[in-house]
Amino acid sequence: MAVNRYYDIIFFFNTTLSHDVSHILCKTTDINDPGSKSFEVNIKRKTQAVFVVHKNGEFFAYLNQCPHTGATLDWQEDQFLDLDKALIQCATHDALFFINSGECIAGPCKGQFLQVLPILIIDDEIRLDL
């Protein structure tokens, strides 16, 4: 029984801690559907560019970094989607990524993925859950 209690305490501590380090990015209503928005967040004491895409009522968050060159993806402020607003498009080499997975389907990084970031929706707020 002691082992199970220890596990339960550690699980509770880790779950509680993870919510304490979440970053509120914005309200869900701040991003059009479809649409996207960029943010700068301190992750492990380093400022990181991230973005969130809103598509069909769902939200997806990624590190704002192309897997091919490391360049940021946005071609204008808060503009990460192609003209049809169906895919994420890299401004540097026009690589295209699925919104729901970050997989590159066209361009020099085909088959690679954007770095997914975990998010939570709590009380109409989008929170980066690190």
How would you characterize the overall build of this protein?
- The chain is mostly beta strands and 130 residues long.
- It has one domain: Rieske Iron-sulfur Protein (3-layer Sandwich), CATH 2.102.10.10.
- Helices cover 15% and strands 39% of the residues.
- It has one helix at 2-20; strands spanning 22-27, 35-43, 46-55, 58-63, 87-89, 96-98, 104-106, 116-117, 119-122, 125-129.
- The strands form 3 sheets. The chain has a 4-stranded antiparallel β-sheet, with no helix packed on it. A 3-stranded antiparallel β-sheet has the order 1-10-9.
- Residues 1-20 have low confidence and may be disordered.
Summarize the structure.
The chain has 130 residues and is mainly β.
Provide the low-confidence segments as ranges: 1-20
Please outline the major beta sheet.
4 strands, antiparallel
Order of helices and strands: HEEEEEEEEEE
Task: Kindly report the oligomeric state of this protein.
Answer: single chain
Taking strands numbered 1, 2, ... along the chain, how are they ordered across the largest sheet? 2-3-4-8
- What portion of residues is helical? 10-25%
Bin the strand percentage: 35-45%
Counting structural domains, the number is 1
Radius of gyration: 17 Å
What is the C-level CATH assignment? Mainly Beta
List the helices and strands and how they pair.
Elements: H1 2-20, E1 22-27, E2 35-43, E3 46-55, E4 58-63, E5 87-89, E6 96-98, E7 104-106, E8 116-117, E9 119-122, E10 125-129
Based on the model shown, name its key terms.
130 residues, mainly beta, Rieske Iron-sulfur Protein, 4-stranded antiparallel beta sheet, 3-stranded antiparallel beta sheet, 10 strands, 39% strand, globular, disordered N terminus
